[in-house]
Amino acid sequence: MAKHSTLPVALIQDRDHGSREANLANIEARVADAAASGAKLVLLQELHNGPYFCQHESVDEFDLAEPIPGPSTERLGQLARQHGVVLVSSLFERRAAGLYHNTAVVFDADGSTAGKYRKMHIPDDPGFYEKFYFTPGDIGFEPIDTSVGRLGVLVCWDQWYPEAARLMALAGAEILLYPTAIGWDPSDEQAEKDRQRNAWILSHRGHAVANGLPVLSCNRIGHEQSPLDAAGIDFWGNSHVLGPQGEFLAEAGNHDAQVLLAEVDMRRSEHVRRIWPFLRDRRIDAYGDLLKRYRD
């Protein structure tokens, strides 16, 4: 079990501030605010060092990547140690020449690197051309042990896959966390925008319920113009903290930068799983076909 029965958490929902330095300086200020409010676990949004560059395919964007460990991990580790928080970051990792990952790095409260997760599911859709940039993760779905508990860290597109959340839960994750960059095409009708955002929130609530775990999802905000002269993306915010029955513990708006604070009762998962024993009743003898692409 986590060492804190009640865990104060913070999600840093923000927009791109124009440069790596400006974004990291803003993160430093917001993490200080979160720590001053009592947070012990802080989640940042996906690829927080810059704009969401995957709206186009350009070899020049690879210059944004950096090694892990590297300059950003050193700075973020110092930030975690300074404020005594567990910090979940999201970086563009240069692993080798021509080999790059979308990687979440977790820093413990003493500033050490507790672990990392490389994004497993990589999208390739209009405005989200991630397969051009990111090699699928090869670490697997392994929770990361920290001073506040065992964290099941996943990244954005992973959030649509119940298998990913389930495998983290089966490996003993005590909380699921999703650094995210998701938004809509501003030219879409409002009804379509609402359907997309509601589906996104519903997927997270489903992961919480199906696994009896708290879920944290931190999204960015703001309009980011497309380099291809397309409509760009309006990132819809709505970062949220859910309890193990999918209940909202905190939810941010869709336009404003916010340090979203919540208290997560880490004991509730044990209680919920006793009354809804989904792990007990799984028919693992009948799930072999899940390893197939499709049942023809």
From TrEMBL:
Family matches, as InterPro entries: Aliph_Amidase/BUP (IPR050345), C-N_Hydrolase (IPR003010), C-N_Hydrolase_sf (IPR036526)
Coiled-coil region: none
Keyword Transferase among record annotations: yes
Signal peptide stretch: none
Domain (CN hydrolase): residue spans on this chain: 7-266
GO molecular function: acyltransferase activity; N-carbamoylputrescine amidase activity
Keywords in alphabetical order: Acyltransferase, Hydrolase, Transferase
GO biological process, one term: putrescine biosynthetic process from arginine
Keyword Chaperone: no
Protein name: Acyltransferase
